[in-house]
Amino acid sequence: MSTLLDELSKRAQALTLEERAQLAQQLLESIERESGPEVRAAWEAEIADRIARYERGEAKLIPAEDVFAAARRLTR
């Protein structure tokens, strides 16, 4: 990790939960703005495919609390 990235990460972790969420949203939006049309088209196709699999009953659904619990275990 670069020195600047390391410093930004440390400072971001000092923010409140709400501030970190806002920062994450802003960063994701900046990436989306810089993505080319082929990336956006690929994501739209992926989203449509996931919705179709869900509607056909082919998607394996995992409760959010299970996902978050697994994420917490991985970050410890």
Describe it for me?
The structure is a single chain. The chain is mainly alpha-helical. The protein has one domain. The chain contains four helices and no strands. The radius of gyration is 17 Å and the shape is flat.
Low-confidence regions:
none
In this structure, how is the largest beta sheet organized?
A: none
Average of pLDDT: 93
Q: Number of DSSP strands? A: 0
What is the H/E order? HHHH
**Shape, per Cα inertia axes:** flat
Measured between the Cα atoms of the first and last residue, the distance is 20 Å
Oligomer: single chain
Q: Evaluate the radius of gyration.
A: 17 Å
Counting H and I runs of at least 4 residues, what is the number of helices? 4
- Beta-strand content estimate: under 5%
By helix and strand content, what is the structural category? mainly alpha
How many domains in all? 1
Helix content: over 70%
